[in-house]
Amino acid sequence: MGLFYNVSAKELLEARNELFVKKGIPALQQNGFERSPFAVDWFGRNNLKDFTYVLCRLAPHSQLQVVNTHISRGDKWIKIFLNIFELTPAVKSLDQLKDTDGLQYHLPPNSRSEMRLRSDDFEGMPLFNFVHHKVKPFYTEGGFRKRMFELGALIEEDLNNIDRFAKRWHELHKPLITDWEGRGVKEK
């Protein structure tokens, strides 16, 4: 028995995944996000035995908002990314995109405008950016539970206010105009 409480990499991975499933996904769903309609997108355990969740919603002007979440083994982060595309021809429902490939949404040049929540959207000096989607240090089992509770509250708060991040994304980027499979379309 060690001096400090230790959590295995597998336990930490499972705990972060359970937290995101209980707090993050319902918060996104309350804001109109749903499981990605694209054939290549993950929703759960991926082929690396980590977890990836891709959720989408349609915003005005046929804008596709994509939230891509990675929960990786071997770290303490829940990495949440937001990217926005303008689809042409216009889409009325995500069902229209069902079973299209969609791989291009995750590759450059489309992935260059991806914004990581709580990291890429920070204003001011990065030195003073203390709030992240990361399990903070803990030394006891109670400390671990407290840190997971804090992370869950932050994830839930941020994803309930996803429109604030979408607004910040628009301040930093301009939506790429793409076809339904994510291939770039020249502006008119």
State the main characteristics:
188 residues, alpha+beta, 3 helices
What does this molecule look like?
By secondary structure, this protein is of the alpha+beta class. The chain has helices at 9-30, 141-160, 162-172, and strands at residues 34-35, 43-45, 51-59, 63-71, 79-87, 115-116, 176-178.
User: Largest sheet, if any?
Assistant: 7 strands, mixed
Distance between the termini: 67 Å
Rg value: 18 Å
- By secondary-structure content and strand pairing, the structural class works out as alpha+beta
> What's the multimeric state?
single chain
Helix content bin: 25-40%
The helix/strand series, from N terminus to C terminus, equals HEEEEEEHHE
Average pLDDT: 91
Query: Quick one: how many beta strands?
Result: 7
Low-confidence stretches are none
Strand content is 15-25%
Number of helices: 3
Compact summary:
With 188 residues, the chain is an alpha+beta fold.
Per-chain topology:
Blueprint: H1 9-30, E1 34-35, E2 43-45, E3 51-59, E4 63-71, E5 79-87, E6 115-116, H2 141-160, H3 162-172, E7 176-178
Parallel strand pairs: 5-7
Antiparallel strand pairs: 1-3, 2-3, 3-4, 4-5, 5-6
Helix pairs in contact: 1-2
